[in-house]
Specification:
With 260 residues, this protein is of the alpha/beta class. The protein has helices at residues 13-20, 49-55, 61-69, 86-91, 105-117, 167-172, 190-195, 198-202, 215-220, 225-234, and strands at residues 30-36, 39-45, 76-80, 97-101, 123-126, 129-130, 135-141, 158-165, 181-184, 208-213, 237-245, 248-255. The strands form 3 sheets. It has a 7-stranded mixed sheet, with helices on both faces. The chain has a 3-stranded mixed sheet with strand order 6-8-7. It is globular and about 50 Å long.
């Protein structure tokens, strides 16, 4: 853990800024230090899109800042849909334990690079998807260089087969890392992740849930928004914030203490 950038080799700022202004085909990868709510980590900037994904937090700074603020030294934070690990890496500077779950091999590889760059011993990476039943599913993806992958149809480059597990099963295998804070961002697959994690959601040790909801994608694929919200609320949570962004809803839920 540790929340600062102390001990990291200083960057050549002039060179870094020059490279940020250069686009393809002359783009030169570089490294950048990122700070958010007292947490600091170093990341690769491998293509122009990383400027948005990493340096600008995917235009979700407010939401990501809230997640980092919500974590303290004793927490176990589970990041479902970790992508290239920006949030997981920053949170690992503060939390006791971070479990980062990402099905895409390219994204998972970049997540590992960021964990090693920051010498994070408290971050465990799991390469799989989550759903309501174990098995395998086809993932629509552009790898670690493009938009977030999705199990539902999306205009991305490739489809690959990946293993899928249930959240409850992964949690049961790691009793020492039971999530106290949980984030789910799975590009429309959130209802199935929640269905496969109902025991975890009902456990009073889970205090905070961050849920990114994709209403259009869900409805297009026959998923019920009403059922999703009802399941979360019946598990003992109440919504405390809801931020609308494009076709997404960024929900923050807190445990209702009387619900045991």
């Amino acid at each position: 853990m540790g929340t600062g950038c102390a001990g990291m080799k200083p960057l050549n700022i002039a060179r870094k800024l020059k490279r940020r202004l250069v686009g393809p085909p002359d783009f030169v990868p570089y490294e950048a230090d990122v700070q958010l709510e007292g947490a600091c980590a170093r990341f690769q900037i491998t293509n122009p899109g990383d400027r948005l994904r990493v340096l600008e937090f995917g235009s979700e700074r407010e939401n990501m800042a809230d997640m980092v603020r919500s974590v303290s030294a004793g927490d176990a934070f589970w990041d479902v849909g970790a992508y290239i690990g920006v949030l997981a890496t920053l949170v690992a500077r503060k939390a006791r334990r971070v479990i980062a779950i990402e099905p895409d091999p390219g994204c998972h590889e970049r997540l590992g690079i960021h964990a090693r760059m920051n010498s994070l011993q408290n971050l465990e990476m799991i390469q799989c998807g989550l759903g309501d039943a174990p098995g395998e599913l086809s993932l629509n993806t552009s790898g670690g260089q493009g938009d977030a992958p999705s199990f539902f149809e999306k205009n991305l480059k490739n489809r690959i087969s990946v293993p899928v597990k249930r959240l409850d099963d992964l949690v049961a295998e790691r009793p020492e890392s039971f999530p106290t804070v949980l984030k789910i961002d799975v590009e429309g697959f959130e209802a199935r992740v929640v269905k496969g994690g109902q025991s975890t959601l009902r456990d009073h040790r889970l205090k905070v849930l961050f849920l990114e909801v994709h209403p259009v994608v869900m409805v297009q694929n026959g998923e019920s928004l009403a059922d999703l919200f009802a399941t979360v609320e019946q598990s003992g949570f109440r919504a405390v914030t809801c931020i609308a962004r494009k076709n997404e809803l960024h929900m923050k839920y807190q445990r209702v203490e009387s619900h045991r």
